[in-house]
Specification:
Structural class: alpha/beta
Radius of gyration: 21 Å
Oligomer: single chain
Distance between the termini: 19 Å
Helix content: 25-40%
Largest sheet: 5 strands, mixed
Number of helices: 3
Length: about 170
Amino acid sequence: MYDELTAVDIQKMQEEINYRVRELRPKLIKDVQIARAFGDLSENYEYKCAKQEKNRNDSRIRYLERMIRTAKVISTSSEEDAVGLFDQVVVFHEKLQKEMALRIVTTLRADAGKGLISKESPVGKALLGRKVGERVQVQLEGGLSYEMEVRSIEKGEDDAGLAIRRF
């Protein structure tokens, strides 16, 4: 299995790996050594915390390296009048009788609370390739669905300003 990511996604992950390996890891190793010097390790809370933080950093580095290794690089281009990756889309949710502004992004940058919807989500899948005025049916698990209408599309581009998601 692979994740479909853009070149900017991979660049941002590589930058984070470089920071974690070159700057953060030496600091965390030093913190572990300092905490170890405090004495008895069985009752040394500072040592335990420093070790956990170092392990968390190492785990994040492995995760990012695996993501890069297994990624499939995708293009961000789309038709001029159709919903594509990184486009800002205004939709009318018919069940809620409410307009919503969404931006379609890669899974790595999704944050539904900020309106950043993954292209892999049911909403993202339903909207990609659609045009203004089209009604789309969003299929959810369990056979549930709802309809939305595409009201407007503002073309976007893959900018480095969107943070990659933490775990």
